[in-house]
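Summary for the steering committee. The consortium agreed at its last meeting that each partner would contribute one worked example illustrating the joint modelling workflow. Our contribution is presented below. We chose a case with several input lines so that the handling of multiple components could be demonstrated. No manual editing was applied between input and output; the record is shown as generated.
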Amino acid sequence: GQQLNQSPQSMFIQEGEDVSMNCTSSSIFNTWLWYKQDPGEGPVLLIALYKAGELTSNGRLTAQFGITRKDSFLNISASIPSDVGIYFCAGKTGANNLFFGTGTRLTVIP
Amino acid sequence: GAVVSQHPSWVICKSGTSVKIECRSLDFQATTMFWYRQFPKQSLMLMATSNEGSKATYEQGVEKDKFLINHASLTLSTLTVTSAHPEDSSFYICSFDGWSYNEQFFGPGTRLTVL
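What follows is the complete predicted structure of the assembly.
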């Protein structure tokens, strides 16, 4: 299946700092999704992006669908302790299947 | 977002036994549901796509005779791990497509431990 690489793999930041992570693929996707997963839980949808160049915000989160349709980034502003978790990007082609990225583990130090 | 439940949330079983995991959509009728597997510190890997009233479609490398999927109604899909072995120990998560724009909503997951 498609390979989606996320970077960085992990981040340790101070509370209040901004966070940026990105996702790249060798394949083109029609939809990009960003999820957050807490330990022992299923992923929760944060932001969905549907067209190239789209920039979408959800509270302190902002994500963009890359113009090439092969990448996306997620920014978190003014991080708080509850932002801790694993963030996954996911790409979707015309079919139903989602392909997940490798994940970015975020730790926020109070 | 839509609500998806899974039962049980965790299960421990002996090697050789079968385990059934249920996935229910509580506020939406889902024609298509998905089953994923996630090993520790790894990403989610799609196992199969389950369509209501028809046979599931399995991803390459996933044994359909070992992971039996039944999607008998628009709100319920089940995954049965047959003759489980320790290497089947994993976090199993179901999901279904949302009602707009190709979003997917995930269940809380079931942690299977095979002794």
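Chain A touches chain B at residues 1, 30-31, 33, 35, 40-45, 48, 50, 88, 90, 92, 96-103 (CB under 8 Å). The CA atoms of residues 98 and 106 of chain A lie 22 Å apart.
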